Amino acid sequence: MNISYCLKPRSKRRLEPFKPDQPLPFGQLRTDHMFMMDFDGHEWYNVKIVPYCDINVAPGAIALHYGQAYFEGAKAFMHPDGEIYTFRLDKNAERANFSGEILCMPQVPIDVQIKAIHALIDVDRNWFPIQDGASLYIRPFMFGTSDSLGVHPSECYRYMCILSPSGPYYATGFTKPIRLLITQKFHRAVSGGTGAAKAAGNYAASLRAGQFAKKFGASQVLYLDAENRYIEEAGAMNHFHITKDGTVYIPEFTDTILKSITSISMIELLPKIGFKVIQKRIELNEFIEGIKKGEIVEAGGFGTAAVVSPVGEYVFEDGTILKVGNGDIGEMTKKIYKTYTNIQYGRAEAPEGWLKKVERIFQG
Ligand SMILES: Cc1ncc(COP(=O)(O)O)c(C=O)c1O
Fold this sequence. Notes:
With 364 residues, this protein is α+β, with helices and mostly antiparallel strands. Helices cover 21% and strands 29% of the residues. The protein contains eight helices and 19 strands. The strands form two sheets. Strands 9, 10, 11, 12, 13, 14, 15, 16, 17 and 18 form a ten-stranded mixed sheet that branches. Strands 1, 2, 3, 4, 5, 6, 7, 8 and 19 form a nine-stranded mixed sheet that branches. Strand 13 (247-251), helix 6 (261-269) and strand 14 form a beta-alpha-beta unit. The radius of gyration is 21 Å and the shape is globular. The protein starts with a strand and ends in a 7-residue tail after the last strand.
C-alpha cells in the first residue's frame, strides 16, 4: 500500500531537534502531521500523511453514537545512536486487529500498520523530545464513519495515527507509589463483553470509577471480576504483585482483561533476571491476607504509559488503609523498572524483535 504525503510547507514544520526546557506533560503535545486512511466496505484507500488538523465526521457517524471505535498506545524511544526505535509495535498492531475483531471492524494488515506509523514518525522525527525519561507516544485508532442511525456495524471506517512527544505519565515519575481503591461498586468488564479489547467505550465506562477513586485519595480503582472474587486490573494497567521469594504474580488473561504488552514483555523478561513469574487468577481475599502476613511485599501496575507503577497502599471504602510492605517503592520493583527502561532506551540489549528502527526514508 502506497502512502501519499501532503505535508506542511517546510517553513511551518519543526526542522530542528526538539529540546524542551520544561518537563513535558504526558499526551498533550502533537507533532506536525498525522496518518489517515479510509475503508469503503471493501478496501483501504486515501492512504496519506497530512498536517495535524481537525477532521470532518458526519454527525450521524456510528462511532459518535454507538462507540464503535478502538485505539492503541505504543511508544518510540531514542537510543544513544541518535536513532528512533519503536517498541513492540507489532504486538500493538496485532492487538488492534484483535479489538477490531471484537468490535466487528475491519482488519488492517500488521505490516501496513507498522509501515504507516514508521513513515509518520520518520516525517516528524524532529519532534522526538530530547529530555530524560521522555518518549514519543504513538496513538493509532479506528472508528466507524458511516452516517447511519441503526445499531449495526458501520460499513465505512477511518484508521488514523497521531503522535505525542511526552514526558512520564505521572508528573512525579517513578518516585511516588500510588494508592488504589478496593471497591465492589464498579466493574470494568464482564465475561462475554469487550474487556479484552481496547474499545473506546471501555474507557468511557471507567471514568466514573476513576472519579470515585479520587475521593479516597486513590489514583485508580483496583478492578475486580463481576463476582468480586478475583483481581482483574489496576485502572488502565495490568496488576501485579511480588512475594518475598521474588515471584511476580500477574492475573491470568481472561476475556475481561486487556492483554498488556508490558505484561507479556515482563513474562518473557523477568525470568532472565532472577524472578519467577506466575499467571493465574488472583483471589482478592488471598491477596489481602498475603499482604497482611507480609508474604506479599510489593505490588503495582504494568502499562505502556506509566511503564511500572508501584502501589504503596490500597484503601477500602470505609477508609481502612492496607500498606504493601512499608509503603515505599520496593527494591524488586525498582530492578524491574530499571531493566525494562534500559532496554527501551537502548542502554541494554533487547530480546530479539522488541525494537524496530525507524528508517530514514522521507527526505523533504
Ligand atoms: C485496561 C488496560 N489494561 C492494561 C493496559 C496496559 O497495556 P499495555 O502494557 O499494552 O499498555 C492498558 C493500557 O494500554 C489498559 O488500558
